[in-house]
Specification:
This protein has 190 residues and is of the alpha+beta class. The chain has one helix and ten strands; from the N terminus they run αββββββββββ.
């Protein structure tokens, strides 16, 4: 004789399935609440405390004076013996277009854009950065070996973008100009 189910009864196993579904629904709701909390917290935290030092600059007056004036572009040796390289990216060139840096010495590269967004990449290294108008991009590295490296703009910056290439010439520290009587800022051309 077959048992008949009344409308308030469920077949065997349905109650276990409903409990499992409710458990998963509660678990997923809790996970979404936690993730939303992490998003809100991190947004508020990083909005109040940016993860890096952001340095702004007036891109329209780069060549008029200051750190990125033409006389200051290239490589100089800081008081602590490290090298500081200053470069301006502009349509469709890096100025200077050939950088001279010593091998085995900490190098700080400071870049500014005179016009649009440019990419900064030194082939054969892990240096890859964006150069944004209105901001100074700072990259720190040490070149272990001497040699010539290509430095293309990898961000489309206009119709002449394909010709925007520069070079980084890494020389042994002993070959790098260090005499104070010589130019304070050097590049391959100077």
């Amino acid at each position: 004789m077959a048992e008949t189910l009344h409308s308030d009864q469920h077949p065997p196993g349905i109650e276990a399935g409903e409990r499992t579904e409710r458990l998963w629904a509660r678990s997923m709701t809790a996970a979404m609440v936690v993730l939303l909390g992490v998003i809100v917290f991190s947004s508020a935290h990083w909005g109040l405390h940016p993860p890096s030092r952001v340095e702004t600059i007036d891109s329209t007056s780069l060549h008029e004076g200051g750190e990125f004036s033409e006389a200051n572009l290239g490589t100089s040796i800081a008081a602590d013996g490290s090298a500081v390289v200053r470069v301006v990216a502009q349509q469709y060139a890096f100025v200077p277009n050939c950088l001279l840096v010593p091998a085995g010495v900490p190098v700080t590269m400071r870049l500014a854009s005179a016009d649009v967004v440019h990419g900064f990449l030194i082939q054969g290294t892990n240096i890859n950065a964006m150069v944004l108008p209105g901001y100074v991009t700072t990259v720190r590295t040490t070149f272990a070996d001497s040699g010539e490296r290509l430095m293309p703009c990898h961000e489309f910056c206009g119709v002449g973008h394909q010709a925007m290439w520069a070079h980084v010439r890494v020389v042994e520290a002993g070959q790098f100009p260090s005499d104070e009587a010589k130019a304070k800022v050097v590049s391959c051309a100077r």
